[in-house]
Structure formats: C-alpha cells, structure tokens
Amino acid sequence: MRRYRFVVDQARAAAECFGYHEMATPIFEFSEVFKRTLGDTSDIVTKEMYTFTDRGGETVTLRPEGTAGVARAFISGGLAQHLPLKYFYSGPMFRYERPQKGRLRQFHQTGIELLGVADPIGDVEIIATGVEFLRRIGAWERCYLEINSLGDAESRKAYRDVLVAYLSAHKDQLSKESLERLERNPMRILDSKDEGDRKIVADAPVYSDHLNEASRDFFQRVLAGLDALGIAYKINPRLVRGLDYYCHTCFEIISNDLGAQGTVMGGGRYDGLVGIMGGTETPGVGWASGVERCMMLLQQDPPARRPIALIPVGAAAERECLVLADQLRRLGLYAELGYSGNVGKRMKRANKLNARVAVILGDDELAKKVATLRDLDSGEQREIAMDALAQQLEAY
Length: 396
Ligand code: ATP
Ligand code: MG
Prior knowledge:
The chain is of the alpha+beta class. It contains 15 helices and 16 strands.
C-alpha cells in the first residue's frame, strides 16, 4: 500500500499542478455506458467485462476503465456550461483477462480527462502532465513515448476504405476474429495480437499517408508543443488505441523494464465520446495509467515515516509515557509506545521500526523532571527538561 499510495499521490500532485480536480465515479455503471463508448467490437466489451444482472433486473458492469464514467457524470451533472473542465481520478478497474505479471483482473488506474479543449495545446498539456507524473515517481527516465495521429472523421473514413480494400485481398490469411472486425471495425485489426494478422498488418497501408491537411496540421502542432517542452517521442504509425472513440492524438508511454506488459500509460483524444453518449458534442483528451505497472517501476520502497520511540523504565514512567505519547500525537508526531518488555527489548523494537529518536524515562528522570533523548542515528544522548521535550521532538 505504501508503494500504491506513493504512485497515486504523485499522480494527483502532478495533476494538481496543471489544475486538475479529483472526481470519483461509481465502481459500476449500467452496462450500456461502456458498451456505447467502447464499441461492440472492442476487446473489453466482447471479452473482458464483468457484467451481471442486479436485483432490479438491470444489467450492470464493473468499470473496466475510467473515461466513460467521467463522461457520464459530466453529462448527467449538466456540467457543459463550465468548460473547460479538468478531472483526475484513481481507483479499481475490472477486466476478465488472463492474469499474469502486470495484467490483473482487478487492477488500478489513475488518469486525467481534459474536457472542452479542441486545440492541440490540450493534447500537449495532458502528455506533459503524464510525463511530470512519471518523473516524480522516477520512472520517466526508463520510459519512452510513442505517438500517432488517428486524424479526424474525414481522414478516418478515407483510410478505412483503403484499409478494407487491402485487408479484403488477404481475407484468407486473417484470423476469425479479424474477419468479424473487417466489416464493423477494420481499424481494430491493426491492433490485433494474432501472429498471422500481424504479418498481414505489417504491409498494410499506413494511416499517416491518408491524413487530410487539417489532421496533419493538428498533429504537427502537437509535436511542435512536445518539442518545445523537450519531451522526446517516437512516431509509431501502427499505434492505434483499442478504444473506438479516439481521434487525432493517440499515445502510449512504455517501459523496457516490464517485459510484455510494458505500457504504463495510454491516452489520446476522444472528441466523439460525449456526443455518442447523448451529451452535447464536447472535445476531450486524457490518459490512464496502470498503477500496478508503475509500482513495478519504483526503484525502491518509498520510505516509511520514522517514529519517536518512548521507552519507560518502571511502572510510574510507563504511565508518564502513555500521556506523553498522547501529547506528541496531538502535535501530529508519530510516537510508538513499545507496549511491554524491558529496556533492551523495547530498544530492539524501536530499531526495527527505524525510530529516529528514543525518549528514555526512568525513576531518576522522573524525579528530576527530565527525559533522556537518544538520537538513534548518531547515538548521541542528552537530558532534556520535560516541559521542553515536545518542542525538541518536533524538530526531528
Ligand atoms: P493492453 O494492450 O496491455 O491490454 P490496454 O490497451 O487494454 O492495454 P488501456 O485500456 O489503455 O490498456 O489501459 C491503460 C493502462 O492501464 C495500460 O497501459 C496499463 O498500464 C493498465 N492496464 C490495462 N489493463 C490492465 C490489467 N488487466 N492489469 C493491470 N494493468 C492494466
Ligand atoms: Mg487490454
């Protein structure tokens, strides 16, 4: 949990610097919310959703991702008057997948959504937010950014026709799944993990050759923004997101350290999403990051808070320490009272907890109204008047 909290806290803190506010949406929604937004042919909808009927006969789904819920809340909350809006979220997601390293059935994502900004500066800024997050957890240095453009609706249609023509000529070599996608959602075939499909896809026409001028210009402005920020990227013309509502920018941030499950962040622009869900057409752009994969990239455990160890010698001192611990905690300090045992045993426990300092209190000290303060890093020891003790400890 310490690693988990560190990752999420850093994501939240980075997002806050860009003006994002946290939103929490329900862990389950009506299944329709995901079916509509992810598309009938996506992997998530066809194979990965945890869907069941509730007592009222409604079909509900444990959320597989965060964007649909944020968009649903945006629409049902009537927030369209307040654009632009920036939301940060984190929490559990559920997908019925084959569990393996970095791929879980209940996992966690943290993400951001920027609503109401159609300009490429929005795309640049959300990527910068993601990079800043990864920098803060010390992972960015070991990751790279891949980016591509999916163009606007017109480009998509033009490319779709070219792609279908090409794939249709290789029908006999496509997987059964891809054959089904050929009519309903041919772009998804580019994303196929099937070996045979991948061979065909390798020679498929490249999307970037079919972008119209407006889409090319949009992409150039995104790249120019990244250049200005010194964010390195690789253009990957084969990169398409698994979700159907993306347009223009799509990107992934990948780590070499995680093997096959190396993608730590995925995102892009989804201008069509809010409209598909029945809201006023609203441009959107965002990303989601897998918390468990980010945790795997941490070089070391985030440090635990170091306590002040209170070590009483004798019954009278024990009562005194109980009260002292209470006073210290009210000041927001972390005090550990080794509940029982002799001095040696309590000292050992203090060391195990990596205590910063020990306060030793025996009959002698009580009589003199002092305490012995031992710095456990340097071993240095001195007597402090009881009434100055709390103040002294605050400095640690
Ligand atoms: P993949 O191609 O690895 O299945 P995806 O396209 O399904 O990824 P997204 O839907 O874009 O992934 O989710 C964003 C991020 O969430 C991923 O980059 C990854 O870090 C994380 N993620 C997705 N699915 C899982 C999972 N089952 N377990 C752990 N993390 C996951
Ligand atoms: Mg997946």
